[in-house]
Design goal:
By secondary structure, the protein is an alpha+beta fold. The chain has 2 domains: 2-31, no CATH class; 67-200, Sandwich (Jelly Rolls), CATH 2.60.120.10. Helix content is 27%, strand content 29%. The protein is built from 6 helices and 11 strands. Helix 5 (168-179) packs antiparallel against helix 6 (186-195). The chain is globular and about 70 Å long.
Length: 211
């Protein structure tokens, strides 16, 4: 009786008396409205106009960069670990005729890319060897056995890119020192390889100066 008097006093008449579900649904709607009002605000995208820009680009011209030479095979450092914060290493290799760059090996923590700019490079991969002419790009992910050499009578120039670089300059300098020894010490060579994330496929056939 009290409920009926309340409904009549509110002017809702007999409609609500006949349909009590309307009041129930109205309560649910009110709760939904309250929930929606407390939703987390959308995240605002960063203001890129507030980025602090730096002028730290490096331009390395042809002929520039530290160079190591051994038996007419040269390595020129273009983008070093120091320059790239160890994120990238770029090195130009000049291979004289019939020179071996590296025998089959692989890396665990870095990828390697070959960009041939002069001559024809022979790339050894797990499924055999391929001839990479000037302009060819060869991408070698980590854990992929690979090696390279020059089987021609002309000089081959190739750019090697390591990502990350794993301080590859130290490897080349150590290689220069190790291969200058006669005879080459296999244990020292293997230790150098392993230190710089290089692992020969065949430890009995890993020294590039030997056929």
């Amino acid at each position: 009786m009290v409920r009926n008097e309340f409904v009549k006093s509110m002017g809702l008449g007999s409609i609500l008396l006949m349909n009590p579900r309307i009041l129930f649904s109205q309560n649910i709607t009110n709760k939904m409205d309250t929930t929606m009002k407390h939703k987390e605000p959308k995240r605002i995208a960063p203001n890129y106009f507030e980025d602090e820009l730096v002028d730290s680009a490096s331009v390395i011209h042809p002929g520039e960069g530290e160079m190591l030479t051994l038996n007419n095979l040269s390595v020129t450092f273009k983008v070093t670990s120091e320059l790239s914060n160890s994120q990238l290493g770029v090195y130009e290799i000049s291979l004289p005729p019939h020179a071996i760059g590296a025998k089959l090996h692989y890396h665990r923590f870095m990828d390697e890319t070959f960009i041939v700019s002069q001559g024809t490079l022979t790339i050894e991969l797990g499924d055999g060897s391929q001839k990479a002419k000037s302009g060819t790009v060869v991408y070698v992910p980590r854990f992929t056995p690979h090696g390279f050499r020059n089987d021609t009578n002309e000089t081959v120039v190739v750019t090697l890119i390591f990502n990350p670089s794993e301080k590859r300059e130290g490897f080349f300098k150590g290689l220069y020192e190790t291969l200058n020894e006669v005879p080459v010490n296999p244990e020292k060579f293997l230790k150098l390889y392993n230190k710089y994330d290089s692992f020969p496929v065949d430890v009995d056939n890993m020294i590039p100066t030997e056929e």
